[in-house]
Amino acid sequence: MKIALAQINYHTGNFEYNTQQILTHVAAAKAEHADLVVFAELAITGYPARDFLEFEHFLQLSDEAIQRIAQAAEGIAVIVGAPARNLQGEGKPLFNAAYFLAEGKVQQVVAKTLLPTYDVFDEYRYFEPAFSNKLVHFKGVKIAISICEDLWNVGHHAKYKRNPLAEIGAAAADLIVNIAASPFSVGQEAERAYVLGEAVNTYGKPLLYVNHVGAQTELVFDGASTARNAAGEIVLQLPTFETAMDYVVFEAGVLAASAATNLAPVASSNIQLIHDALVLGIRDYFRKLGFKKAIIGLSGGIDSALVTVLAARALGPENVHTLLMPSRYSSDHSVNDSVALVNNLGVSYEIVSIEKVFSAYEETLRPAFAGTQPDITEENLQSRIRGMLLMAHTNKFGSILLNTSNKSELAVGYGTLYGDMCGGLSVIGDLYKTEVFALCHYINREAEVMPSNILTKPPSAELRPDQKDSDSLPDYEILDKLLFHYIEERQAPAAIRAMGYDEALVNKVMRLVNINEYKRHQTPPILRVSNKAFGMGRRLPIVARYLN
Amino acid sequence: MKIALAQINYHTGNFEYNTQQILTHVAAAKAEHADLVVFAELAITGYPARDFLEFEHFLQLSDEAIQRIAQAAEGIAVIVGAPARNLQGEGKPLFNAAYFLAEGKVQQVVAKTLLPTYDVFDEYRYFEPAFSNKLVHFKGVKIAISICEDLWNVGHHAKYKRNPLAEIGAAAADLIVNIAASPFSVGQEAERAYVLGEAVNTYGKPLLYVNHVGAQTELVFDGASTARNAAGEIVLQLPTFETAMDYVVFEAGVLAASAATNLAPVASSNIQLIHDALVLGIRDYFRKLGFKKAIIGLSGGIDSALVTVLAARALGPENVHTLLMPSRYSSDHSVNDSVALVNNLGVSYEIVSIEKVFSAYEETLRPAFAGTQPDITEENLQSRIRGMLLMAHTNKFGSILLNTSNKSELAVGYGTLYGDMCGGLSVIGDLYKTEVFALCHYINREAEVMPSNILTKPPSAELRPDQKDSDSLPDYEILDKLLFHYIEERQAPAAIRAMGYDEALVNKVMRLVNINEYKRHQTPPILRVSNKAFGMGRRLPIVARYLN
Predict the structure, then answer these.
(1) Which residues, in sequence order, are CB contacts of B540 under 8 Å at separation 6+?
(2) Residue A473: helix, strand or coil by DSSP?
(3) Residue B496: its chain A contacts at CB < 8 A?
(4) Residue A366 sits at the chain B interface (C-beta within 8 Å)
(5) Cα–Cα distance measured from residue B211 to residue B213, given in angstroms and rounded to the nearest whole number
(6) Which residues of B408-417 are buried (b: 16+ CB within 10 A; e: fewer)?
(7) For residue A313, which of A264, A272, A352, A267 has the smallest C-alpha distance?
(8) Residue A360 and residue B360: Cβ atoms within 8 Å?
(9) Residue A263 in this model has a pLDDT that exceeds 80
(10) Helix (H, G, I), strand (E, B) or coil at B101
């Protein structure tokens, strides 16, 4: 039996596009004499479809798409993910299901048992856990179909009480199939390999794993679909961050590569994966929204420079425009370094002074501000003027502003709401400042894409004379570690202090993280590359008093 | 047996405050010779504590608070909600629990079985459903303790397969207690009464219901704690939107009012409930964040006028400042009507022209915009200048900007990101424009608090000459109904058309709702008064193609 693994870049809610993609791949697999083609979890709707799953009309479109694909399943069988109705009169109205299609119709529906409801996942919001499932019998082969999280009930305190592979009878199966919607984050690759390995080891069966590829707003799916034989050896590895389809052969209980199969090279480093995830994240955000052009405010600092490089790679330099907006506090090198960068990249730029507008604000506010001293207000104003000029460009020319905030800033609130926090998409909002540096060095590993001066000068917001980030913040080397202990690890203050950090500093940083939730509530969506990104996967109250 | 129902305004994460409140009420109930005092669901942590429930240190503080309260439970028993550890080695690490405290220690823990995970609720994100529960035996009375949603498994397609009251053995109990965290929305009161009635009718037992009161960011808890006897009659009714404690007596199987008990008057209308919810929502937002002063941009229109009235009632007029920011397109009545309003209210104001700043932006953008015509860009700029001036005031004087967007605008994207969409809290973002009018008429029911001209003139953004909302939008009477069918009811386009609406209009409105998700992603938190508010309870993808 020849089996195709189809790794596709779906578009949430775009039933016509998703169905066409699936039909095209079914036809291609059939032309290659495949017996079965496997698509990803909730491929029909895209993932995550979120509350669209509560719209009956949306579900009808999904049902119709399944029927269309079923009709094309003649001479080839199809496994594809879509919602299924719970008709049993109790529990959530839907299952997250895998459809087995053959001979022109739906032959069997397998429901997901373990519904991830943590971090960015909300599946129990929509879906009822499977009541019971059965093996699929196809051409003498017994297939245990599972859906993503169904394999993830591992570790010393398992998240779930049920074991879907045991329940479906994987011990009696010939082959395990897992269809997934598993987004990229650093470390996810290794964990996924461990989980797939556990399933193979436990049941001694070969396993096919088919994932999504492509970005849906903040989530970037890396693909990396794979097949393992019963010994756990990888016989097929699809690439990361690219669409692909390839084949395996299952004969006499043995899963093997088909003649033409290539093992895609595995990324050599986390920083390369992050780079590729962000480029795909930008590209898909624009493409799927129907936009082409980006605008970026270039400060002369490392964050905006990095975002410009990534945008030029994602969209083409001809689609990236930059504004350099010096003020009275800007250093010469801010403009010079930025010009050197955009010339390297072939990106267009304009230099626009914010002085005239700033003076007009000062004059307009003078009566109200009489008797007060300049403070953070005037710093924020400069940042906001830049935001407004950039937004005016997006309105006039139909582009999207890319936000350049990093995770360290967002964590401690070192940014101006409606100023440098503006934008349609936050590109590096899930990278700590030290990771921003690392990614820049990765980009410069062979040639000086980014002028070295941008990488070496001390970070500064340049909103008052001789300002440096280090005036208000600890060194990023220390700050980022502290933030990681609190945000990713959720460590207690005492535990962090016990690692050797200064008590006042620990308290200050934790307090800053907590009181700035209100700012993060209004940030653009952030491309997620860590296992705890700000945004949909981290939900904290604004009005609260805890460590603040 | 004398039982106290304690309806308290908790503060999320503020263990010291919450514990003190509980201890004070325990002491007061003891002084009144109560045998038992009942507090709300997750009273110790506040509700919703959201991802703080994933912080071990946060949970330790909760555990410590429970121990402190247990020690005070001498001569009186206490039922109070807090997280409990799941020590069984599988499933989520916590239960949402009711602690029964007596004789100075924790006597029994009852876990919640049905975990709401829809709309604004995320409980399965944190909690494992109860494995099993037992009746509490206290002074010869068998109490079936349940937690909020545990009673809500009703209707023709029940959300859950389990029945907590049946499992715990409510048929053998003498008394049912339900501790809740049930936020206000229009219609919730009636549904709650139905659900409580069903529990009493099914088991023929008296029931005590204790809810939170007070706002936690967007959720406003209305209190309205109550007690019903076995015949379903209300014997105690605590007030809406106010803290309170009162008593019932349970003797020989009969629940009755205690001598001193009063039935709080029930609100006479939904519009009164909405009014009271918004006033409390504003007040608690400021109080719990430690702020006193609000600022509002007064346009001369009905939305900002209404927010100013509500803010003056919530914070006191002396804590509300307004800016009137006319442009070249503002009509005279915009300023005059606003001045009349603030004089009625005793609120301070300044008139600040945006002309100088607007001209400076025009001049600064002239080179880039050469050859283009004025369009939405210039309209947005005016709105954004006003936002920036208001934000400058908040920075300089330590106030919070109140946002004045309504739900109709937010739905169709008729507002400017970083302009009139700025603010720390959206006060009327869950009121359709027609509801805004209704609330204004309610406010003016006895005296002209709001100048009638504000209520009668046609809505306009005044961003270009003679602009009216009706230039771009259908009449609000029609628009709001359409929006309700789509947002609250999630009706299909064909179903809405079948109600008699124009096809092109239906398609346009649905498309506008969907493509403006990106704007709503960056709005301030919105006080929730409907059962489908924009914000945490409505989660839709930004990058999607569905009805757009």
Answers:
(1) A50, A51, A52, B514, B517
(2) coil
(3) none
(4) no
(5) 7
(6) bbbbbbbbbb
(7) A272
(8) yes
(9) no
(10) strand
Inter-axis angle of helices B270-289 and B302-315, nearest 10: 60
* CB < 8 Å to B367, chain A: 350, 352
The Cα A419–Cα A377 span in angstroms is 12
Q: Provide the pLDDT confidence category of residue B262 given band limits of 50, 70 and 90.
A: low
Tell me the percentage of chain B whose pLDDT exceeds 70: 99
DSSP per-residue letters across A491-520? --HHHHHHTT--HHHHHHHHHHHHHTHHHH
Q: How many CB atoms lie within 10 A of CB B504?
A: 9
pLDDT at A245 over 70: yes
A422 is catalytic: no
Closest CA to A236 of A264, A259, A196, A201: A264
**Distance, CA of B14 to CA of B17 (rounded, Å):** 5
Of the residues A55, A128, A396, the best mutation for testing chain B's interface (the one with the most B CB atoms within 10 Å of its CB) is A396
CATH 3.40.50.300 fits A272-465, yes or no: no
Q: What is the pLDDT of residue A172?
A: 97
- Residue B20's nearest CA partner among B64, B69, B80 is B69
What distance in Å separates residue A260's CA from the closest CA in chain B? 35
pLDDT at A464: 85
Inform me whether the C-beta atom of residue A194 falls under 8 Å from chain B C-beta atoms: no
Give the up-direction half-sphere exposure of residue B458: CA atoms within 13 A in the CB hemisphere.
10
Neighbours of A229 (CB within 10 A): 20
Q: Which of residues 159-178 of A touch B (CB under 8 A)?
A: 159-161
Domain chopping of chain A, boundaries:
2-259, 272-465
Q: Max Cα separation, chain A?
A: 87
**Span B2-260 CATH architecture:** 4-Layer Sandwich (3.60)
Indicate if B112 belongs to the active site: yes
Q: Among A262-276, B50-64, B385-399, which stretch is predicted with the lowest mean pLDDT?
A: A262-276
Tokens 């993808």 sit on residue: B541
- Could you tell me if B185 lies within 8 Å of chain A, comparing CB atoms? no
Percentage, residues of chain A above pLDDT 90: 91
- Any B CB within 8 A of A389 CB: yes
Residues A299-339 have pLDDT tens digits of 999 999 999 999 999 999 999 999 999 988 888 888 999 99
Please indicate if any CB of chain B lies within 8 Å of the CB of A31: no
The domain B272-469 is placed in CATH, from the list 1.10.10.10, 3.40.50.620, 3.40.50.10310, 3.20.20.70, at 3.40.50.620
A246 has a pLDDT exceeding 90: yes
Which A positions 135-154 lie with beta carbon below 8 A of chain B?
none
pLDDT of A465:
86
Q: Exactly one of B30, B64, B103, B112 is catalytic; which is it?
A: B112
- What is the pLDDT, as a whole number, of residue A260? 66
The whole-chain average pLDDT of chain B stands at: 96
Helix-strand-coil split of chain B, %, nearest 5: 40, 20, 40
The count of residues in chain A is 548
Q: Does domain A2-259 have CATH number 3.40.1580.10?
A: no
Helix (H, G, I), strand (E, B) or coil at B391: helix
Residues in B closer than 8 angstroms to A42, CB to CB, are none
- The C-alpha atoms of residue A361 and residue A378 are separated, in whole angstroms, by 9
Q: What is the pLDDT of residues B179-208, one digit of tens each?
A: 999 999 999 999 999 999 999 999 999 999
Strands (E) in A258-373, as ranges, are 294-298, 320-324, 348-351
Active site annotation includes A440: no
- Tell me the per-residue pLDDT of B322-368, one tens digit each, with 9 for 90 and over: 999 998 888 888 899 999 999 999 999 999 999 999 999 999 999 99
